[in-house]
Write a structure and sequence with these properties.
The chain is α+β, with helices and mostly antiparallel strands. It has two domains: about 45-150, Helix Hairpins (Orthogonal Bundle); about 150-305, Sandwich (Immunoglobulin-like). It is built from six helices and 16 strands.
Length: about 300
Amino acid sequence: MNESINQNTGFGERSTDMGGRMVNKDGTFNIRRIGIRVHHRVSNYQNMLTMPRWQFLLVIFFVYLLINCFFTALYWYAGTEGLQGIHHQKDTWGQLKELFFFSTQTLTTVGYGRINPISETANWIAAIESLIGFLSLAIATGLLYGRFSRPRAFIRFSDLIVYTHYKGGKALMFRLVCYKDDHLLTNAEIKVNVRIVMEDNSYRFYNLKLERSRVDSLVLNWTVVHPIDEDSPFNDLSQKEIVNLQPEISAYLTGFDEVYSSMVVARISYAIQDFKFGFKFLPMYFSKSKRTDLDLAKLNLIDQE
């Protein structure tokens, strides 16, 4: 078993220095960096690429609204007499609305023509706004392209890991599946580690030997199996002893996505509360009308042995 010890995980070995699990359920690392300013450690570009779609659209709309409100204020303080076509007989709110929509036309270079700047100050403001409009459009286009072209692993892991009888012995199992019709992985490979707490309050990491660590094509679901034999850190341990070790199993999946023509990565971890002892996974796929149906809703379907 000593040969399976992994000292290259990148995590510390003292349990008092680590808080909670190593890897969150969504695959992100449970690490918070401190000690430097936020703008030095936070990547706004990365955040814009990875945030949910509704948040991205909300940020784009908010920035668009903020820029137009800013230039509306500049046109107002520069004086509405510097703009030809403004209806001066309107009240303040009516003039502000006209300035705002003139700003949107200038920012997007639409320029319908009814309102145009005639003073030098208004012309300078409009010139600067049109430049910002070009730059903003380029940035927004780049972000949209980056979001669409960014390789993603469309992989779902089971929420649970089962401890079950297997081939005359015991085994730990979890499973995963590609949930997009076209984004199937080829040359998929998975590595699985476990972190356990030792008696001296330190962590020890082990590579878990798998029955199969690579598949040529991830077409159906893949049940990842760790047979518990003499090389396993769980060998000859009872359920209570395994619970006392507070194991955290982390998995790292890589594969080639033919749609992106790129390698993609997916991660997951299972803490002790995710273990199910004495259960087994039920089949996800079945034959129907000369084809095979894969039921993704059954990814977490288990039954007692």
